[in-house]
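Incident log, structure service

09:12 report received: a user says their structure output differs between two submissions of the same chain.
09:20 pulled the input from the user's history:
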Amino acid sequence: MNTHDFAGRAGRSVRTPAPDDPSERARAYASVSLWLATAGDDLVAADALAGDREVDVAIVGAGFTGLWTAFYLAEARPDLRIAVVEREIAGYGASGRNGGWASALFPSSLATLARGADRDAALRQHAEMRASVDEVIRAAAAAGIDARLAKGGTLTLARTATQLERARAEVAEARAWGRGEDDIVLLDAEAARGRLNAAGVLGGTYTPDCAAVHPGRLVRGLVRAVRERGVRVHERTAATRIAPHVVETDRGTLTASHVVRATEGYTPGLPGHTRDVVPVHSLIIATAPLPDGMWEEIGLARRETFTDGRHLVIYGQRTADDRIVFGGRGAPYRLGSSTRLDRGAAARVHAKLHRTLVDLLPVLRDVEITHAWGGALGIARDWHASVGLDPATGMGWAGGYVGDGVTTTNLAGRTLRDLVLGESTALTALPWVGHRSPRWEPEPVRWLGVNAGLRAMAAADAEERATGRDSVAARVMAPFTGGH
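09:34 re-ran on a clean worker, output below:
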């Protein structure tokens, strides 16, 4: 593929599977992302709901949140009747489209968490996020899932003076919270380039709390694992309405003691949930596998995930088959919380991502881009992820991960297990449990506000390049993006 011809490739992310041909649908699913194309699975939808059923737990959404919840519930209580419904196939949404970071990142800062609870509770949340990285690795191995995991940590490069100052401030703040060098460390230019030999590096930070993962193999492995444990996963079964003890679908109705909503960026498609989160697209490109000599020049010897200190988020990883997968934000929010990618906008963002990657690693200038895709992540109005269950109605939920969901979903699944079973545990006492985010504004105010925020982050980076000073626009936006 021509490295600048992204329009056709981006279009694959919005291809609609044929309604009556399973093999054609499977080919369409494989075209969604590199991850689904190389998941080691035939991607044939299975076990559509065939009429009404009564179960103990009904889960809506077969992404990481829904599958981890089913996995841990089935392990704890093999006698439970658990059903998961999914509009397409397991992993069709963000779980099969993300950048492959199983990180300890949480969208709300420690200060924000402490304001809602206290300092100790905020630190417990952080500790559980760190531990959850290892739990993803442990649970995948225990279930026999080869998700190509490598816990190489995350390198955040500082490539301008303002980014370096933010890196220093981040480490200083971490120390004020009692977080030591085992958690995050400041790197000088030589140490940062020793991990990733990028252009213009002045320094950076490093945390060990991230594993590069093949999310397609993980999510498709999880659906097999839960089925082996007796869970019914009904693919090609679209939930049309959820209510206490009821999930209505286009193929029948589930009646359940507990109903768990695990729909993340697709939540606005459910009646009554239009303003719970907004779906914002993150877009990604992948290179062809790179030769050993090129990797000797680039680095990432431990498959570190990487980003830099700009405001409009970018992220990358070295895959197990020696590609670079590189993504970022910037695609506009679509009116009415649509989860469909605009093909033209996606192509423009993919091309910009390619330019950004080459600016970061000039050695990749002539390397082929083989895949380009995108996916919708969910953002709550206060940028605060949450998990909870209402005992009066039996309705549970989790989401609002703001793109940091590969690990957070695992913590959510274990927490929902405890909540459904009525157990009071260290997980159910975490400050994100039971948090209720305010609803987003109606349209078109929502469209105006979200897109203004995206443009502000891009403008903040341009402002810093022009002035050499910390962005005023970014400081203004911080309270609205989970910061201080």
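09:41 both user submissions now match this output. Likely a transient worker issue. Closing.
09:42 reviewer note: Residues 186 and 205 are 5 Å apart (CA to CA). The first helix runs from residue 7 to 11.
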